[in-house]
Design a protein that fits this description.
Oligomer: single chain
Shape: flat
Helix content: over 70%
Order of helices and strands: HHHHHHHHHHHHHHHHHHH
Number of helices: 19
Number of strands: 0
Length: about 500
C-alpha cells in the first residue's frame, strides 16, 4: 500500500504530469478527510480575518499564554541545557589542560635524550644514504664546477671559524659585564664552565672540518662532502645558540646558588666516603660494648680540619647573595640563598654522623664546640642586624625563619653519649633567634615581633616533639617576656595576643 500522506500531498499540490497510479478506497478516504480538514482550516482562518475586532483580544490572550509557556519552558530547559553544555566544555577543557601539561612534562623530561638521539641518528642515516645519490651529483660536478665547489667549501669553513671567534667574544663580553653580580669565589667556577668552553671548541673544530672538505681528491667524494658540510654548518649554528643559552643560564642567580649548594654537598659527601674507606686504618681498642661515638670518623676529621672549608665558603657565598639581593629588594633570590644554607647544614650533619660531642658543665670539652655551626649562626646574626638597621621587614623575616629552620635541623644531631639528654646546638640556634627578635624591639615593628614569637614557639614545640620538654623552658620564658610589651605600649598588644595563643606559653615558669 502506498503512503497516504504522500498521496495527500500530491493531491494538495496539484495534478502530476507523470504517470499516476489509481488510488485504493482507503487512500481515497484519507484524501477526502485531509481535504475536509484543509477546507475547515481555511474557513476558520477566513472567519478570523473577516472579524478582527472580535477576535483580536482572544488572539492576543492566546499569543500571550503561548509566549509565557514558551518562556517558561525556555528558562527551565534552556538553563539545564546551558548548564550541561558548560559542564561538558569544562570537562573537555580539563582534559586538554591535563594533556598539555603531560606533554610538556614528558618533553621537558626527555628533551635532551630526544635531541641527542636526533643529532646522532640523523647524520648517520644521511651519510649512509649519501652513496645513493652520488652518481647524480658526480655527473653534475664537471671539473670546472668541482673547482668552484672546493673554493666554496674553503671559504665557508673560513667564515665559520671567524664567526666562532666573534660569537665567543660576544658571549664572553656579556659574561664579563655581569661579573659584578657574582661573588669573587664563583669567578673561576663560572669562567671555566666545561660545557660553554666545549661548545666553542666544537664550533671551532667543525669550522676547520668544513674548510678541510675542500681537499677532496675528485668528484666521487662530492656526496659525502656536501652531507658533511651541511651537517657541520647546522651543528655550528646549534652550538652558537647553545653557547648563548648556556651563558645566560650561568648568569642566573638561582643557577649560581645551585652550583654553590651542589659543590658544597658533594664535597661533604666526598669527605664522608673517605672517612668510611679509611676507617680500618685507625684501629681503636675498647673494653666491653663498643662506644656509640664514632671515634674513627672523629679522628679522621680532626686529622683533616680542612674538610669543612668548601662548606664554609659556600655558606659565606650564600650570605653574600642574600645580603646583596635583599638590598635590591629581590627577596626571592635572598630567600633561596638562605634555604641553601639550611640544606648545607643538613648535609653537614649527615656527613659528620655520630661525632658530635655534648658539653659538660664541670669539665671543659674542646670538641663540644662546632666551628661550622658557630660560623653559620654568626653569619646569620650579622645579616639579621644589617636587615634590622635597614628596616627591611621581609629580609629580617627571612633571616628569622632561617634561624628557626636551623633550630629544627639541629634537633636531628645524635650526640651518641649515654645519659646525655640535651640538644645544645638547637638551643644555641634558638638563642640566636631570640636575640634577633629582641633586637627588633627598638624599631617599633610589631608585625616582625609577632612573626618572631611564632617562630620561637615553633622551635619550642620542636623540643617537645623530640621528648626534651626541659629544653623549652628558656624559650617559653622569652615568649612570656616579649608578651609584656603589650602592657607597656598599646601598639604591641597583638604581640601579647600572639604570645598567649602560642602553646609554648603554657610552659612559662
Amino acid at each position: 500500500m502506498r503512503n497516504p500522506l504522500k498521496l495527500w500531498w500530491r493531491h494538495i499540490r496539484g495534478p502530476w504530469t507523470g504517470y499516476r497510479v489509481p488510488a485504493t478506497p482507503f487512500e481515497n478516504y484519507v484524501i477526502g478527510r485531509s481535504k475536509l480538514f484543509f477546507l475547515k482550516s481555511r474557513y476558520r482562518l477566513h472567519n478570523w480575518l473577516k472579524a478582527p475586532p472580535l477576535l483580536a483580544p482572544r488572539l492576543r490572550t492566546t499569543v500571550k499564554r503561548k509566549a509565557r509557556r514558551s518562556q517558561r519552558l525556555l528558562r527551565v530547559r534552556g538553563k539545564k541545557a546551558f548548564d550541561g553544555a558548560r559542564r561538558h566544555l569544562a570537562q573537555v577543557d580539563r582534559r586538554l589542560i591535563r594533556l598539555r601539561y603531560e606533554m610538556q612534562s614528558r618533553v621537558a623530561r626527555r628533551s635532551r635524550a630526544i635531541i641527542s638521539a636526533v643529532m646522532i641518528v640523523a647524520p648517520v642515516v644521511s651519510f649512509w644514504l649519501a652513496p645513493t645519490w652520488q652518481d647524480a651529483v658526480g655527473a653534475y660536478f664537471n671539473p670546472e664546477r668541482f673547482a668552484v665547489l672546493r673554493s666554496l667549501l674553503s671559504s665557508t669553513g673560513g667564515a665559520l671559524v671567524g664567526a666562532t671567534a666573534i660569537g665567543f667574544s660576544v658571549v664572553m663580553v656579556a659574561v664579563q659585564l655581569n661579573f659584578a653580580r657574582m661573588p669573587h669565589g664563583l669567578f673561576r667556577r663560572l669562567t671555566s664552565d666545561p660545557r660553554l668552553l666545549g661548545a666553542f671548541a666544537a664550533t671551532f673544530l667543525l669550522g676547520i672540518g668544513v674548510s678541510a672538505l675542500s681537499l677532496m681528491p675528485d668528484a666521487s667524494w662530492v656526496a659525502l662532502a656536501l652531507t658533511a658540510a651541511a651537517w657541520g654548518t647546522l651543528l655550528i649554528l646549534y652550538l652558537f645558540l647553545y653557547g648563548y643559552w648556556r651563558a645566560l643560564h650561568l648568569l642566573n642567580p638561582a643557577v649560581q646558588l645551585g652550583f654553590i649548594s651542589e659543590d658544597a654537598q658533594k664535597d661533604l659527601q666526598r669527605w664522608s666516603r673517605r672517612a668510611e674507606r679509611l676507617a680500618p686504618l685507625l684501629p681503636f681498642r675498647h673494653d666491653g660494648a663498643p662506644p656509640k661515638l664514632d671515634l674513627r670518623r672523629l679522628a679522621f676529621y680532626k686529622a683533616n680540619p680542612q674538610w669543612t672549608v668548601q662548606a664554609k665558603r659556600a655558606v659565606a657565598h650564600a650570605i653574600s647573595f642574600a645580603r646583596r639581593y635583599a638590598e635590591q629588594n629581590d627577596f626571592e633570590v635572598s630567600g633561596l640563598a638562605l634555604r641553601i644554607i639550611v640544606a648545607i647544614n643538613l648535609s653537614y650533619i649527615a656527613a659528620k654522623g655520630k661525632t658530635f660531642v655534648a658539653s659538660n658543665p664541670i669539665f671543659d670539652i674542646p670538641d663540644a664546640s662546632d666551628a661550622f655551626i658557630n660560623d653559620a649562626l654568626e653569619h646569620l646574626r650579622r645579616l639579621a642586624r644589617i636587615s634590622t638597621s635597614r628596616q627591611s621587614e621581609e629580609g629580617t623575616r627571612q633571616v628569622l625563619a632561617t634561624m628557626a629552620a636551623l633550630a629544627q635541623v639541629y634537633l636531628a644531631i645524635d650526640y651518641s653519649a649515654p645519659g646525655i639528654e640535651t640538644k645544645e646546638h638547637s638551643q644555641l640556634a634558638a638563642s640566636y633567634l631570640t636575640g634577633a627578635v629582641e633586637a627588633i624591639l627598638p624599631t617599633n615593628s610589631p608585625d616582625l615581633i609577632m612573626e618572631g614569637v611564632r617562630l620561637i614557639g615553633s622551635s619550642a614545640r620542636g623540643f617537645l616533639a623530640v621528648e626534651h620538654p626541659k629544653e623549652m623552658t628558656t624559650l617559653a620564658s622569652k615568649i612570656g617576656a616579649l608578651s609584656i610589651m603589650g602592657v607597656v605600649k598599646p601598639e604591641y598588644r597583638p604581640v601579647t595576643l600572639t604570645a598567649m595563643c602560642d602553646p609554648a606559653s603554657d610552659h612559662v615558669v
